[in-house]
Amino acid sequence: MTAPPAAPPMAATEAARATAQPAAGDRVWTALDLLRWTTDYFSSRGIDTARLDAECLLAHALGVDRVRLYIDFEKPVSTEERSGFRELVRRRGTDRVPVSHLIGSREFWSLPLFVSPDVLTPRPDTETLVQVALDQIAVKTPLILDMGTGSGAIALALLSELPNAHVVATDVSSVALAVARKNADVHGFADRIEFREGSLFEPVACERFDIVVSNPPYLAEVNRSQLPPELDHEPDVALFAGSDGLDVLRGLWAGVADVLVPGGVAAFELSSEQVPAVSDGLRDAGLADVTCFRDFEDRPRVVAGRKPAVSAGGV
Ligand SMILES: C[S@@+](CC[C@H](N)C(=O)[O-])C[C@H]1O[C@@H](n2cnc3c(N)ncnc32)[C@H](O)[C@@H]1O
């Protein structure tokens, strides 16, 4: 795979125009020139979010936010600044390292979160789960369980919206919990969140919650080779869940009724084709009002159910 040129980058379509310009080494490159070149380059590498990625990386290399980048579109970018940017472009385009790992953060629910290769980079899709949870919460001081918290994205988004809520956030990964803790500290939520390490409901046995949310790993191992190369940079434990992708979801639907208060709600993110299995699983576990919710691209991506307020059938 070829890295972007060491000389100031130039898209093929710009080459003809450039013949009347100074030699590449002497050329003045503005932020806009670099964005155009990088967007073309990323597009040619099959990156769907080419322009956005180019903007995020250039803003990071220049130490400014994206708004400032727009204001200073015509400002020349120095050789030193271009050199740092070029390395980011190479790692994104050639190694397919996610932008979040290159810049060390990702915004989720308007919260800038620290991320590292130890956690799943929070996805915009998961904001659907946050919204479903917010819509379902009926009590003023909810106790929430976020199972598989990763960077803490869901837990911290809920805390940002619910000033009287408390969260227990769990994960099997101690390194992921360290990232989530750091994010909770940075955003000033440390006194309303508790972190516990362990699998599924083991860290909260005998406790009861008003709402249980989880975005568990749900990819099938058999599909590994067809996945985008960016996923190679994310932890397997955050992505894969057995041959059909349901290993962790099975544990969730089987055990969730035991950790919900009567009237409490469970809401899980999943892939569209898993909706029937998870809906049936929740109903079999005694949950009522099992409903599927769609994400902003109109794909069914969240299933929620409520534990009946009056105990029935052992639930
Ligand atoms: C898809 S990531 C979600 C991370 C974060 N909640 C988000 O939405 O961005 C799944 C998380 O579940 C954790 N996990 C995987 N298996 C688990 C298990 N059996 N019990 C608890 N956590 C688990 C992983 O370590 C990972 O952090």
CATH class category of the largest domain: Alpha Beta
Structural class: alpha/beta
In order across it, which strands form the biggest sheet? 5-4-3-6-7-9-8
* Estimated helix fraction: 25-40%
Q: Can you identify the CATH superfamily of the largest domain?
A: Vaccinia Virus protein VP39
Count of helical segments?
12
Overall pLDDT level:
91
**Strand residues, percent:** 15-25%
- Tell me which CATH architecture of the largest domain applies here: 3-Layer(aba) Sandwich
> What is the number of independent domains?
2
- Give the total of beta strands: 9
Q: What molecules are bound to this protein?
A: S-adenosylmethionine
* CA(first)-CA(last) distance: 57 Å
CATH fold-level topology of the largest domain? Rossmann fold
Q: Can you walk through the features of this model?
A:
The protein has about 325 residues and is α/β, with parallel strands linked by helices. It contains twelve helices and nine strands. The longest helix is centred in the N-terminal third of the chain and has 15 residues, at about 80-95. The N and C termini lie far apart (about 55 Å). The structure holds S-adenosylmethionine. S-adenosylmethionine binds near residues 173 and 217.
In short:
This protein has 315 residues and is an alpha/beta fold.
